[in-house]
Write a structure and sequence with these properties.
25% helix, three-stranded antiparallel β-sheet, alpha/beta, YbaK protein, 5 helices, 8 strands
């Protein structure tokens, strides 16, 4: 599998593909949405989570607002599989699929091409912060740029109440 990717690898990927976004190296870890929002001085709704799900033993990446949960029943409907065919990936599976450690997975620049889904609510944000390749790094990116870079499928997998509205 090779050694894990880093925030430097993510920054190189952004530059190589002309993706407008910035990798921010932070003075302290941001393992939670609340911690990331506090460090960045933004609302928690601007923090995104990048979650790897195993769908019938194949990795699928889901990008959603950090607040609230991803509805796996809705995800199953979107993917046309039974709910029981979906589970959150284990840390080793996350690392194998993306090249990045769980907790720092960025929405782009993975070791292998993955199916990527983005919850529709993410697109309502003018600017967002996602995993930056490590727990002490974040990627600042406009959701429109994120969508263009990932060519993600836009889905509804997060209840509207999760956005705090």
């Amino acid at each position: 599998m090779g050694k894990p990717l880093t925030p430097d690898d993510l920054a190189a990927y952004l530059a190589a593909y002309g993706i407008r976004g910035e990798v921010l190296r932070l003075s302290r870890p941001t393992p939670t949405v609340a911690a990331a929002a506090e460090v960045m001085g933004v609302s928690p709704e601007q923090i995104l989570k990048t979650v790897v799900f195993m769908v019938a033993d194949r990795p699928v990446l889901v990008i959603a607002r950090g607040l609230g949960r991803i509805d796996t029943r809705a995800l199953a409907r979107q993917l046309g599989v039974p709910r029981k065919a979906i589970r959150v990936a284990k840390p080793a599976e996350v690392l194998e699929a993306t090249g990045y450690p769980a907790g720092g997975v960025p929405p782009v620049g993975h070791r292998q091409a993955l199916p990527i889904l983005v919850d529709r609510q993410v697109l309502d944000l003018p600017l967002a912060y996602a995993g930056g390749g490590a727990v002490s790094a974040l990627l600042r990116i406009a959701p429109a740029d994120l969508l263009a870079a990932t060519r993600a499928t836009v889905v509804d997998v997060q209840p509207a109440a999760a956005s705090g509205e």
